Amino acid sequence: MANSTAKLELGGENREYEVLEGSVGPDVINIASLYRDTGMFTYDPGFTSTASCESKITYIDGDEGTLLHRGYPIEQLADHGDFLEVCYLLLYGELPTKAQKEDFDYRVTRHTMLHEQMSRFFTGFRRDAHPMAVMCGMVGALSAFYHDSTDISDPHQRMVASIRMIAKMPTIAAMAYKYHIGQPFIYPRNELSYAANFLHMCFAVPCEEYHVNPVLARAMDRIFILHADHEQNASTSTVRLAGSSGANPFACIAAGIACLWGPAHGGANEAALNMLAEIGTVDRIPEYIDRAKDRDDPFRLMGFGHRVYKNYDPRAKIMQKTTHEVLGELGIKDDPQLDVALELERIALTDEYFIEKKLYPNIDFYSGITLRALGFPTTMFTVLFALARTVGWIAQWKEMIEDPNQKIGRPRQLYTGATQRDYVPIANR
Ligand code: SDX
């Protein structure tokens, strides 16, 4: 909705651009005609001041430290809902009725099996391959099997692909883990909940019954909720850009997985636990705080800082609570890395540098401690993030495909390279 304008004086000409107002959060200046009007581009590396799209799915207030999914605060969804309910909310825009939830759970549950031939792909990977490399390959390969849900112009196929992605990510992630540790694959069990089924596929072995601890299953489900979606972050923007060319949803999600892998993004949960292990003891924290503040040292506190949150990441608070719950349930009294994390947070939050730059713990700071306690190796942490974020990627992809204003994403540039010059034969160089 346009209700005011922004004035631009350029080259002696005055122009006005409409200001569009959202339901909440910053207004935007619609500059779509700027190049046609002025022959100039805007310049915003990293898109710090750029809205790439209109969306109704997730809203973050970075100053307040709030996160809403379709208007519902993350704290309420994490306390009262389950992950598949949040998936329904992200995909359809409303919380499901009891009947809608039962139908959605049924549909997802019955898509959890993977085409049997796909299990052969795993033998092509080295056992010690990083599981994220396997995830990139396996998810991209889904488009080589599920041809009946790759026509993005068909709403039915878009929904089938969405359900398949949400349903099969835990199976693929568990298979990547089992392959990594040299154990046989465990098939999904339809009588188990989404999170319990995932833990069963990861930790059961054919030799004996495996009973999933309900407290740990609930913690796993809540961790999935916390990672489900987060506005136009780097990997979601990757999925949207890939999807804007008409690429099939499986290929787009594979692109999102590749982007999430980076340590500045989803890879930070693995990097944060490795950092806590490297620090080792509380007395070594000051040395690392100094390194984080040293502009000449590339070291950063992994799990700290955020492009949007300039306050405490609400997900980190819930994650910290979950960490204590899981450690308590497992009877882990003292976890040296948790001690280091708590003390590191305490020191950082009172340090002038972190206060001035508004650096707070983000979701990745505590998640690693929890995931390791649940039994996962650090190499699986970002895989779990990708598993949970798949619903956010697919919901944002679907919204983009269904947006009448969307077109192929094709940014421009500020060119500072050589101007035109003639070829010089090698004999004359
Ligand atoms: C996720 O976007 C999302 O929503 C992402 C995510 C999601 O759910 O999708 O929330 C998930 O990716 C969380 C972030 C995980 N990454 C990390 O924890 C890695 C460590 N954090 C930093 O790399 C950094 O904070 C980023 C990448 C998260 C944010 O970077 P920005 O917004 O580009 O900020 P910046 O790098 O420009 O930093 C601003 C200043 C800089 O100092 P100056 O150059 O201005 O002097 O703060 C400093 C930075 O040096 N800074 C840090 C720091 N993070 C920023 N200094 C020390 N330690 C840090 N962690």
From TrEMBL:
It holds the Pfam family Citrate_synt. Belongs to the citrate synthase family. The keyword Oxidoreductase does not apply. It catalyses: oxaloacetate + acetyl-CoA + H2O = citrate + CoA + H(+). This is Citrate synthase. The gene is gltA. PANTHER family: CITRATE SYNTHASE. One of its GO terms (molecular function) is citrate synthase activity. Pathway: Carbohydrate metabolism; tricarboxylic acid cycle; isocitrate from oxaloacetate: step 1/2.
